[in-house]
DNA sequence: TGTCCATGCGAATTCAATTTGGTGGAATTT
DNA sequence: AAATTCCACCAAATTGAATTCGCATGGACA
């Protein structure tokens, strides 16, 4: 049925969690954390990237360091909801560098725009011009953000299919180093 | 005056931009991009981390892979705005794994809560129980998210103080490899 | 003009990433 | 049930990067 759903096991989820917390973990460290050999761990990470489960790796930077003095949410209600118009306005907003997040939602607002600007003047200009500059707009309401928190890691609601490889007897029966083929 | 503001130069901002796009860039690659020797580049990155400008490195994972089927914005209006109550409710929300973003804003809403849940039942339970379970709450409105976009990199409004090291004559007068101290 | 400081470089060392060939267990086939 | 296939894993080896270090350069300041 679902060709795109090999389902992630416990170790995969562990890898995702660790990399969400710290994307700079070296493969060796990650392998040690999840209890795998570096080579096996690397193979899993590469697979997760190939499958699009790991969609990117981003540094988090202090907004103040790039001159963002204030942030705001702008709630926009459209006067018309033609898909054509919505899409055009959506694309328009995405081109604004000030737009950090863009939500298209059901309910009494249509769009919620999270913006980061230099100062109040910048905010006023942004809302007055590029954001309001569109046909078929209804109400616009701007709310200053006092505080914002973003969780770094997503919850995990996925059922784990298998013990992924239950190390049944104790912890690690270290395999006897076998090497005979290339040996005098 | 400002002991914590050595101001970032052009190269620093370039580093920030690149790492926001791809936090897994190797130091060597990054150095090549920004036009620095690996050792110099590493020193800058380490400094940016020490100074808190680089606040973290996070993997971005596909919500579907962890079982998040739907996302929503929950708009909450408080009945009372006592700082004590606000803070308690804020902390309460932060403990919910479903909460992905939390905004405390001025305006007609007080809190905007971005949640990721398994399905509609999960959403109903979340809003009915943990989110509504607090005194002094006013209106609550839940809006399904149809589409969400997050920009990976912040804009840069910071003025660049100095050419960081203007290579005035041409590009790279390759320094004559000096090594005399340890030479016959 | 001389000194200090910040920043950069290259070479050397240390350590990690990646490749490869082989192993064992579990599931599947005979 | 025995044989076979397949898959994920591991260890070792190689390649290549991260990190350290001593020194050089150029601007700021006196």
UniProtKB/TrEMBL annotation, chains A, B:
All copies of domain HTH asnC-type, residue ranges: 8-69
Record's keyword annotation contains DNA-binding: yes
Cleaved signal peptide residues: none
Skewed-composition ranges (Basic residues): 173-184
MF (Gene Ontology): sequence-specific DNA binding
Domain of life where this protein originates: Bacteria
Annotated SUPFAM superfamilies: Dimeric alpha+beta barrel, Winged helix' DNA-binding domain
UniProt-listed Pfam families: AsnC_trans_reg, HTH_24
Listed SMART domains: HTH_ASNC
InterPro entries: AsnC-type_HTH_dom, Dimeric_a/b-barrel, Tscrpt_reg_AsnC-like, Tscrpt_reg_AsnC/Lrp_C, WH-like_DNA-bd_sf, WH_DNA-bd_sf
GO cellular component, one term: cytosol
GO biological process: response to amino acid
Keyword terms of this UniProt record: DNA-binding, Transcription, Transcription regulation
Region Disordered: start-end pairs: 156-184
Name of the protein: Transcriptional regulator, AsnC family protein
Organism this protein belongs to: Plesiocystis pacifica SIR-1
């Amino acid at each position: 049925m679902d060709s795109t759903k090999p389902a992630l096991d416990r170790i995969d989820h562990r890898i995702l969690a660790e990399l969400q917390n710290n994307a700079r973990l070296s493969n060796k460290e990650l392998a040690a954390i999840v209890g795998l050999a570096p080579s096996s761990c690397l193979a899993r990470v590469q697979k997760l990237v190939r499958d699009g489960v790991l969609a990117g790796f981003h540094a988090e930077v202090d907004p103040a360091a790039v001159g963002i003095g204030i942030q705001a949410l702008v709630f926009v209600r459209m006067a018309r909801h033609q898909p054509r118009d919505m899409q055009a306005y959506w694309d328009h907003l995405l081109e604004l560098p000030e737009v950090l997040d863009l939500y298209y939602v059901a309910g009494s607002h249509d769009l919620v725009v999270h913006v980061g600007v230099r100062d109040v003047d910048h905010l006023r200009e942004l809302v007055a011009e590029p954001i309001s500059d569109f046909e078929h707009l209804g109400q616009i309401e701007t709310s200053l953000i006092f505080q914002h928190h973003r969780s770094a890691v997503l919850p995990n609601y996925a059922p784990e299919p298998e013990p992924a490889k239950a190390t049944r007897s104790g912890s690690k029966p270290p395999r006897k180093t076998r090497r005979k083929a290339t040996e005098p």
